[in-house]
Amino acid sequence: MGLGVLEDRVMEHVPGTTRYFDDPERPQFSSEGVEGLKCDTSGRMPIILVPQPSDDPNDPLNWPLWKRDLITFILSVTAIFATCLGPILAANTLTLTEDFSVKFSKVAELTGWYLFGVGIAAFFFVPSGRLWGKRHLFVGGTILLIITSAWGGASRHNYASMAAARVFQGVATAPFESLVNVAVGDLYCVHQRGIRMAFTNLAVFGGAFFTPILVGKITHEIGWQWTFYFVAIFCGLCLPAVYFFCPETAYRRDQSLNTDMLSSDGPGAQQFFANTLNAPEKPEKTTKRDAPSTPDTLVGDDANQTQVGLSEIPISSAPAAPATSSTAAPVPTARASVVPPPKAAFKDSLAMFNGRKADENFVKLMLRPIVLFFHPAFFWACLIQGLMIGWTVFIGVILAQFFIGPPLWWGEVETGYAYTAAFVGAIVGFLIAGLLSDWSARLMTKWNKGIYEPEFRLFLIIPMMIFGCIGLYGWGPTADDLLWDIPPAIPLMFFGFQVAGMVIGAVASSLYIVDAYRDLAIEGFTIMIVFKNLLSFGLTLKAFQWLVLNQTKATPLFNIIGSVQLVVCLSSIPLYVFGKRMRSFYHRHDWLAFCKVR
């Protein structure tokens, strides 16, 4: 048992389990079919790259780190403008009820229609991303964001037009909600994903909370239409960056290089894991000058290898270069004889399509997320991420009831500023997730004698549960007591706690799915997004009705919501303990094949 994670009784190696935090006294050896292991030796201790980069310079894992970070940054910034369309009406509820001559609940439904568009579009876009890559979806989504944002601003007094625009705004947002996190899995090895995944989750989920702060002031000064026009303008500025600097991140890599997805029953895998997980304790050492070098040791972008400090450890029982060296030891002749393809020209990277990425059936891919919903790990991820996001939307909808109405009678400016606490909470959640995600995984891997289990990512559920439940249990009574002169900052503070928990939970569930089921990550993110958007859509329709049933009292409602969330967080304990055995079971009993969608 590794730190409470039960070992599997059937498979010697379970997909997802790997060694990526290496001890320099135990250099790794590869086996037939995986001739050498590339390591990142830029840090104090070498880290085996998981998955292993190929020798193709067009493999995203071989791109310079600055290039991969630039792609992540551009997609994240565009995702901020895309997802800001979700809460863009939060501070304008009163203004829109007057402009469209409708009730509060009808304005809330406009947010619901946006969420509905995101959820439905994900079913079609994600299979497309799996088959033909993500670039065409990112570029197309940015163009559609420009068009639909301008449409929303031009709707003026036409409620039906605005509702239709909101649906298509959701469609335009879907590629960024569903595929940006998956692109992180394409671009980075396991040990590099934590802080980047926290950043992309902040962009997708947390950045939206800054929107109402600006929207209230913009509406007051120049009208609510300009909130949409500004989104169209900024998305127009992002379009050239997405088109010219975000090439395709999907890559068809040889399965033998996906060392985190190999199992003990795969070809050559038993020898591979025997060699890597049972390396000699104290192999004979040689100095760097004793190890012969060859210009073909590392194939790929030289800048990347210089920056990241890659090294490759050979298969041999002879003395090898110590793992702390950034100079690679010789590679076997079988590997050196393979000539890698030439590096693609810049103009080639601008193509919307560069070949199929999978030999799959589109309809089956579209149905896979529904099937995965009944997989325990993916169902857990839907609850962890979807419920917290749903409660956030729920609070945003009813916030108007408590702050725009009596006794405060706030206008759009004050209501917009109320989201400052939520934005601060998102930043705090990002910092906690970013600092703890990779650090905790590395520390627990070190305690586990260098063996990494994806279940170590579930450590983040602890701060999520603390922050999230404090926020949910605290929001109800303090919002009700506004009538008794409780400062508005108190319930808003609890709103910030809840949002911090939401961001941490989103990072935890995303990292676990990517690391434990990377081959199903795209479909996994799809069902997570569909679940949270359709749940949030339903909550926008029922929020005011539930308040009326409780005589506009939030306390009993949020006591129930907080208790539900607490139980969901505690469900992470059996997942942590039995997660490895579950990975083994579903690898040996293919759930997708059983349901005829593979």
TrEMBL record:
The keyword Transmembrane applies. Keywords: Membrane, Transmembrane, Transmembrane helix. The chain crosses the membrane at residues 70-91, 111-129, 136-154, 166-190, 202-220, 226-246, 377-404, 416-436, 456-476, 488-513, 525-545, 557-578. It is found in: Membrane. Pfam families: MFS_1. It comes from the Eukaryota. This is Major facilitator superfamily (MFS) profile domain-containing protein.
